[in-house]
Amino acid sequence: MRYIPVYALVQASLVAIASTSPAPTAFVGNVSPPDPFITPSPVEHNPSPIVGRNILSDVESDVGNVLSGLGSGLPSWVASGVPNFFQGFPTGDAVVSSLGLDSSKLKALPTNVLNIDPYANWTSSGWNVRFHGNVYKQPNTSVSKLNDLADIFLVNTSISDLPKSQQTQARNLTAEIFVVQQPKVAVNKIHLKPAASQGSSGQPGGGGSSNTTGGTQDITLPYNTTVEGDFDTFVLIESNGLTAGNETSAIQRLDTHVEGASIGNSTAYLVPPTGLTIISDIDDILRVTKIYQPEQGLLNSFARPFTAWEKMPEIYRNWSTSLPDTHFHYLTTTPEQVTRNYMEFIYTNYPGGSFDTRPLNFSDVSATLSIRMFLLQKIFETFPKRKFVLVADTSNSDVMRDYPKLATDFPNQVQCIFLRNTSATDPGDKLPYDTSGFKGIKQSKYMFFLNSADLTNLDIANGQCYNQSIPQNLTFGYQGLPLGLGATPTSVNGSANHTGAASGLVTKDSAGAQGLMALVAAILTATFMLL
């Protein structure tokens, strides 16, 4: 029996579609969309000071396959921007079993805390900080065992074939995955004090921060951890010299440390009610990941050093100093276990800011595709008077659905939407993306771009978010179709540096019966190849 990776089957199926589907009809004369019809937001903008713990029950997980409209049976993770290797990480008893730990060894291990950088909002009762993270123990795993475990995640290679530096990173990340979460335990006291540094990456004042002069105190969380070892709750803190949120437009920062934890530091960002917040995805917009190429995406995540994409650090550095009272919030749907690598990369290259990742109880693809909107709605509702700039790329189906929906549900809060068109800049991205959600949204509010330089010469503070040197040519349907679909492709984007790529355009109904039959035949053929 031969082993064939799932993405090989996917590519074979897409090739079959491309070879048999009729070319879609070319679009003639792009017409500017009408002004959007704005409906009142159905969301209540009064968050409770204390948020309940059962996160998963609050989220609708009814997420269909992004390609179902094309008649495709491709796995949902392929089109989701969530790599398959970021699903199904072992937790709890599974880790104990795989590492052969007994109860005495486990009890003797020190407790660690993943203390994710929180944001805080101002309420009539004071500053309200959202503490969230995970309590766990880190087993003492041998190098040889880590090598064996790392090989589980590597596709078409082995850790022994990697350069020494990449072997080290692969082992470190594997060790972060194979931890033992601590369920139903109290989180120790959290010590707060003014942050010594107000910027990041050598930026004094970066991220709209100011010198924090108060806030020293100890706080206790009101809940124990979940069965997965997670904690996520808002807690009111004493002012103790902090500036009231309704008396400043600048962000104050507090160092936070969980008592008794060998690892447990973070920075809390106290964000005033008004101002600008930039919510940014990370993979394939701030760093080179190539999630849409599973083998490369895995190596870029598990072994290779994290690398910034183009000049995005310079773009964010400029935003942090030129835009008034800017708060940065980094939101990634990668699981908590690999959060620390992401946080270290961000704070080495980008302005400091609060952070959100995927909690452990969002473990399957359906829940993963729901977590982004859940976290986005949480921050929008927490800061109903702030403006938001949303930054991501087109390889995430949840982004392509959620960002335009937010612009409709929160019309007075979404200032700009910036999306890197990965299928137009990276030939490895073979997946279509759906722009239908942008129909009816003013062009001045969003922009699909190719290069980081496209994000210059914009007036974000005043809502001018479209660089007019970059043609959009959207048709509000599936775009970026791969492998020759569309004999006469239409340019989706130009770029400020005069580069561009053509991508075939198609509506949801254009794939045709021939393409569906070809897909079925390709999948059956690939299945028999396994025998």
TrEMBL record:
<dbReference type="GO" id="GO:0030479">
    <property type="term" value="C:actin cortical patch"/>
</dbReference>
<feature type="domain" description="Phosphatidate phosphatase APP1 catalytic">
    <location>
        <begin position="277"/>
        <end position="421"/>
    </location>
</feature>
<dbReference type="GO" id="GO:0008195">
    <property type="term" value="F:phosphatidate phosphatase activity"/>
</dbReference>
<dbReference type="Pfam" id="PF09949">
    <property type="entry name" value="APP1_cat"/>
</dbReference>
<dbReference type="InterPro" id="IPR019236">
    <property type="entry name" value="APP1_cat"/>
</dbReference>
<protein>
    <recommendedName>
        <fullName>Phosphatidate phosphatase APP1 catalytic domain-containing protein</fullName>
    </recommendedName>
</protein>
<feature type="region of interest" description="Disordered">
    <location>
        <begin position="195"/>
        <end position="222"/>
    </location>
</feature>
<dbReference type="InterPro" id="IPR052935">
    <property type="entry name" value="Mg2+_PAP"/>
</dbReference>
